[in-house]
Amino acid sequence: MTEVQFTDRVIQTAKLYGWLVTHFRPAKTTKGWRTALQGDSGFVDLVLARAGVVIHAELKVGRGRPRPDQISWAQAIGETHRLWYPDDWDEIVETLRRR
């Protein structure tokens, strides 16, 4: 499974359970793939919100590991941060279903 496929699967599942979802997709430029932003790099892949609950989810596949800038965001975000891999699917669904 690619990260794009995993991201799509998480988004579809979140929408099924009534979450609002934001994902900032990179775009191809003359300098390669870039995600337009102002501020600090490394922000999470998904922000999900429902009924006053917010989840900040970083998604990885395979042997992917968070970069240092992503770790800084995770530490700053605190308890609402999640690091999810496809192998966490049962936990992901349970989190999205019950919260």
What's the structural blueprint in terms of helices and strands?
Layout: H1 3-16, E1 20-23, E2 27-29, E3 32-34, E4 46-50, E5 53-59, H2 68-77, E6 81-84, H3 89-98
Parallel strand pairs: 5-6
Antiparallel strand pairs: 1-4, 2-3, 4-5
Summarize the structure.
This protein is of the alpha+beta class and 99 residues long. The chain has three helices and six strands.
Q: Beta-sheet strand percentage?
A: 25-35%
H and E string: HEEEEEHEH
Overall form = globular
Mean pLDDT: 94
Biggest β-sheet description: 4 strands, mixed
Distance between the termini: 26 Å
Low-confidence stretches: none
What Rg is obtained from the alpha carbons, in whole angstroms? 14 Å
- The strand line-up of the biggest sheet is 1-4-5-6
Give a count of the beta strands, DSSP E runs of length 2 or more: 6
| CATH architecture annotation name | 3-Layer(aba) Sandwich
Q: In the residues, how many domains can be counted?
A: 1
Question: What class would the helix/strand composition place it in?
Answer: alpha+beta
Helix content range: 25-40%
Structure notes:
The chain is an alpha+beta fold and 99 residues long. The protein has a single domain (3-24, 42-98), classed as Trna Endonuclease, Chain: A, domain 1, CATH 3.40.1350.10. Helices cover 34% and strands 26% of the residues. It is built from three helices and six strands; from the N terminus they run αβββββαβα. It has a four-stranded mixed beta sheet, with helices on both faces. α2 links the parallel β5 (53-59) and β6 (81-84). The radius of gyration is 14 Å and the shape is globular. The two termini are 26 Å apart. The mean pLDDT is 94.
